Amino acid sequence: MDMKVLIVAFHSRSMTPYSELYENVIKDNNDSYNIIFWDRFSNNKLEQKGNEFIIHKVCSLGGSKLKKIIPMFYFRKTVNKIIKNGNYDRIIILNTLPAVLLSNVLISNYRGKYILDIRDYTYEKYKFYKKRVDNLVKNSFITTVSSFGFFRFLENNKKIYLNHNISNWDVFGFSDNELSKKPKIKIGFVGVVRYMKENMNLIRQMKNNGKYEFVYIGKTYPECNLEKTCKNENIENVTFKGEFNNKDKPEIYKDIDIINALYGNESLEVQTALPNKLYDAIVFKKPMIVSKGTYLSELVEKYKIGIAVDFKENFYEVIEKYINEFNSHEFDKNANILLYKVLCDQKNIKEKVKYFIKHGEKNE
Q1: Beta bridge partners of 32
Q2: CA distances from residue 203 to 15, 70, 212 in whole angstroms, order as listed
Q3: Within 10 A of 29 (CB to CB), how many other CB atoms are there?
């Protein structure tokens, strides 16, 4: 019997590349599905394009939480209506906040028939929220997490499996050159642009250095004034580019030498998460610069795929030393070791999702 599946995302498709794993499994099994995306930058009526629903309601990615209450309830009301009218057999919900908003219908009507996909730390510091998340995990078919660092705020549960943020996994790159031989080094931040304090610290230390160029590619958080600050301080070796499509990453990374993943280590969110940039590094074979004191830095140092720096360090000296000692052969070997492990994890998750669609509550 064909199953009808609903995937609920909390952002646009460009910000939710990990939805493709679920979509591909469903397509491979010839089951039908709808997927909900949320355009959080415009107001308009609910849009349907093919099997996609697109909710248009302004809800800033940062800023005041109070201003998000009405958009959140609009999202909840709209998705509940889609669920009610759609007669879905299974639900896959991407991240904890939409799951909490829809928890009543998930636990009451879809117990054992939904997958919860957790991508980051949100409001787990609040006891009522954490309790609700733990209950959602308990009543799910399985729960996937993008980082085992999340066990710092989640209860350990046998239903939890690792599901990586990897995309473009079929593009196997190799380090194109020894970094030490390059006259100019481009350090690229690819993704939603934020973490202003950490990035301004890096940029200011290497301000207008002719050897280094910084590029930021992606939508910028409203409260991140990185571009304006660079202009005010006459910093000329920094370039800002707009939003990109995930399929363009292979071309984007051809022009980048080092991946910038400096997020600091002040919040539990950045201490525990594994960003898309980790997988970009091992797929496109580009070393990373990351912040010490994070789960990401532990992996980067364990597999020797980049530099972990402290906020107080001299970034220029640390990066220069790394570049001068860089060995592309060793880097490729280390990156492929981690990539192989990730692909094995993803094969396991695909089998779990396939079984979920066919058998639902019977988690074996």
Answers
A1: 4
A2: 26, 38, 10
A3: 14
Determine if the pTM surpasses 0.70.
yes
Instruction: Tell me how far apart the alpha carbons of residues 140 and 196 are, in angstroms, rounded to a whole number.
Output: 37
- Closest by Cα among 305, 289, 306 to 339: 305
Task: Give the dihedral of Cα atoms 11, 12, 14, 16; nearest 10 deg.
Answer: 40
Q: Which two tokens stand for residue 259?
A: 């991946």
Cβ pair 273, 296 in contact under 8 A: yes
Query: pLDDT tens, 225-269?
Result: 999 999 999 999 999 998 888 888 889 999 999 999 999 988 888
Single-letter code of the amino acid located at 93: I
Q: How far apart are CA 52 and CA 259, in angstroms?
A: 32
Q: Which two tokens stand for residue 242?
A: 């707009």
HSE toward the beta carbon, residue 337, CA cutoff 13 A: 11
Tokens 């070393």, residue located: 287
Region label for 30, one of left (φ > 0), alpha (ψ between -120 and 50) or beta (otherwise): left
